[in-house]
Specification:
With 84 residues, the protein is an alpha+beta fold. Helix content is 12%, strand content 27%.
């Protein structure tokens, strides 16, 4: 996968029959994913599944206030209206 002029290039994958397209604005992230999944590279994806990688700050102001209910080494989860 190569990017020119910082434009995103779609990457098509076929992981054991699950076909999808990877795209986004995170050049480094997409290059890392392309390297990790190079074995599954495909000419094009047949299914209309698209996974988009968006590099940027999380939308902290859109997250409702709440108390964390689950802590893991990498994640914190909130429970709001019986939904974690």
């Amino acid at each position: 996968m190569s990017n020119t002029n910082d434009k995103s290039q779609d990457m098509h994958l076929d992981v054991y029959g699950c076909q999808f397209t990877l795209k986004g604005n995170g050049t480094t992230s997409l290059e890392n994913l392309a390297n990790d999944f190079q074995f599954f590279s495909a000419a094009q994806a047949g299914d209309p599944i698209t996974v988009e990688v968006i590099t940027g700050d999380p939308p902290y102001r859109q997250v409702p206030d709440g108390t964390a209910t689950t802590y893991t080494p990498r994640n914190v989860s909130l429970t709001i209206d019986n939904c974690t």
